[in-house]
Write a structure and sequence with these properties.
Helices cover about 35% and strands about 15% of the residues. By secondary structure, the chain is α/β, with parallel strands linked by helices. It has a 6-stranded parallel beta sheet, with helices on both faces. The chain has a two-stranded antiparallel ribbon with strand order 4-5. Helix 5 (about 80-90) packs parallel to helix 10 and helix 8 (about 175-190) runs parallel beside helix 9 (about 205-215). It is elongated.
């Protein structure tokens, strides 16, 4: 295991740090993964039945209720020491850290992190299924406000009947271009990249660590188990993010 003191010195000496977080850091707060959340009623469905545009169009109430269920679960948990350590470090180094996350739970933002790049969106955000169909946009250039949608399963626009969908990236959808582009830029300019709680299996997020290494950055992986990114890293730390990040990012 690498010397934590040396790593801490390298972190504080780096001009720019990119941090990529995955499901592992949120699991320490009690957030179940997508598949772990499929219990009870939801255990009978495949992920493709609950998180694709086709599934939503085929059965909008089922998909909407699945996300309401997940939102309620996530709302009950709190950011852990790992989330807070990142936020505190960013406050001390506001121009030296870019936080990229695969998680949709918003725990980094709740911990106080600013400018988070959510590659897969945020489960608490709403957007229209078909914004181009909005009648107000067609007549005035303005898009209807999702906060004024009529309640329902799912909510609908009172003006155009458009359905609200969760602001997450579903299976088969591309990542938001601006967010991914900013993440790639941060990876390429980083002196050090920290991968926390990510398995390194889901692309294009997993490619960011490889991109950083190819650009000359030191890559450090923090995870409780082996990951696909361990072969890319110069340093691998085994253990919970809440413990290790508190140690690494402290002054």
């Amino acid at each position: 295991m690498p010397d934590p003191t040396t790593l801490r010195q390298q972190l504080h000496a780096a001009r720019h740090i990119a941090i990529l977080t995955g499901a592992g850091i949120s699991a320490e707060s009690g957030v179940p993964t997508f598949r772990d959340a499929q219990t009870g009623l939801w255990a009978q469905f495949n992920p493709e039945d609950l998180a694709t545009e086709a599934a939503y169009r085929a059965n909008p109430q089922r998909v909407w209720d699945w996300y309401v269920y997940r939102r309620e679960m996530i709302a009950k948990v709190e950011p852990n020491a790992g989330h807070r350590a990142i936020a505190a470090f960013q406050q001390r180094h506001p121009d030296g850290l870019t936080l990229i996350t695969q998680n949709v739970d918003g725990l980094h933002q709740r911990a106080g992190s600013q400018g988070v790049l959510p590659l897969h969106g945020n489960i608490f955000d709403d957007r229209w299924l078909e914004p181009q169909a909005c009648t107000r946009q067609q007549t005035t250039g303005e898009v209807c406000d999702t906060t004024r949608a009529q309640p329902g399963h799912p909510p609908r626009c009172a003006d155009c009947g458009n359905r609200v969908r969760p602001g997450v990236v579903w299976f088969g959808e591309v990542l938001p271009f601006a967010v991914l582009h900013a993440a790639e830029q941060a990876a390429r300019r980083a002196d050090l990249m920290l991968g926390v709680g990510t398995s390194g299996v889901v692309y294009p997020a997993a490619g960011l660590a490889r991109m950083a290494r190819e650009a000359g950055a030191q890559v450090v992986i923090v995870n409780t188990e082996p990951t696909e990114l361990d072969v890319v890293a110069q340093s691998v730390l085994r253990g919970p993010a809440a413990v290790l990040l508190s140690q690494l990012l402290e002054e």
